[in-house]
Amino acid sequence: MKKNEIYPQMQVKETFLYGRLISGKSLGDVIYVKARRKYCFRLLLVFESGDVKMVQRAASSNKQLARQKRDETLMEIAKGSFIPFSYTVKEFYDFWFYHHMIGQKRITYNTYNAYRNIIENYLLPAIGHKMLDTLQRKDLVNALSAIPYQKVQRTAIGVVTGSLCYALKHNCLSRDIYTGISSEVKQPCLKKKADTRQQVYTVEQAAHLLYLCKQQEPMIYLPMLLAVTAGLRFSEITGLRYSDIDFLGKKLFVERQLGKDLYMEKQQENRPVLCSELPLKTKNSKRAVVLADFVLDEILLERQRYEKRKASDPGFLDLGYICCHENGQCHNRSFYIKPYNRLMEQSGISRLPWRKFRNTYATILAQYQVNTKTISKCLGHSSPEFTSRVYVAFQEQETYDISKIIEDYVLTHHLLPKKQGSVEQRPYQLPDALAYRNYFYD
Fold this sequence. Notes:
By secondary structure, this protein is of the alpha+beta class. The chain is built from 15 helices and 9 strands. Helices cover 42% and strands 10% of the residues. Strands 1, 2, 3 and 4 form a 4-stranded antiparallel beta sheet that branches. A 3-stranded antiparallel beta sheet has the order 5-6-9. Strand 3 (38-47) and strand 4 (52-60) form a beta hairpin.
């Protein structure tokens, strides 16, 4: 998709727009159709949209069997498993993706790219030509097992499960062939990689990066400061306004994010396409985060520079964003890449992706014994378990073997009891506390 292009409008069959099948009845007895050389029956179907359509089904060359088939079809209608119209897998996905997921669910631009990649590059080449109502479970397993990337495969399983669940509920599929399919899909053979969760910046490294950034790359200093000290996503940082800061309460409120809008019904405030205001990622992303005093000081200094540029430049765009260009225009999400790369080369620290600042923020709070539930709320997560499992890097405590030292100490100071002269062996007894006290305090 090009920068200024909205999502394509796919042409689909009109029958997709009828919605769920509500009810149906038979139009009289079976009739013999010479062209088909079979007995057929006709049904009058009522759909969710209010449309009423007549369909004809060929049954059998035997009149009695045809009547039996008609009665079975009426039972299927009552159970909700009757399929009034047949579609290929491609026809179904054209409707489900472009009309349901985009037109109704209003998915984001990133989700659009991920789903379109899976459907067009993996699902349709493998099963797009098959009829949806004849699709078998093994067809899905084979198509998903052929995906060579583990993360893409995991997302594809979700796409298949969600889409076929929709098909089952809307009378496009007669049976469940998708539940539990992830256990049958062959995982791609990948080399074992290091646990990237453990890759975070230490407190010392983060402090050094902030100091160096303020000197060498001041354009990304405030975004980096907010990422390290508040755990904000980059799209949330670029969408932060001065009106979102409570200077007296020492808090910031995350209300929006900036990114590419998939639905360009209207142009927003003379801004670039990649800088449209979007709803937050999840409902938990709307949150309040406590700010340190020195962070508030940096925001106030930036506000002074903002007001100075606003007063001196007649063409200044007063949009109120904290992190913006010198003309007031908001940043897109890729503006940090080049200065961040230069900064990492100068720092001598191994480069981690920018998103790892959120992991660093969570890990530092955990090291200072902050409750995991609090960390989860600050990051905008739905559960503390997810935060602990994915974002917090737990470092193993170092252990030392001091048995040799204790043994030398005991033998040197004759702390073991002496053996008795009698034949009977008495168990060793440790000395009382006085022996240890005399050693450590003398």
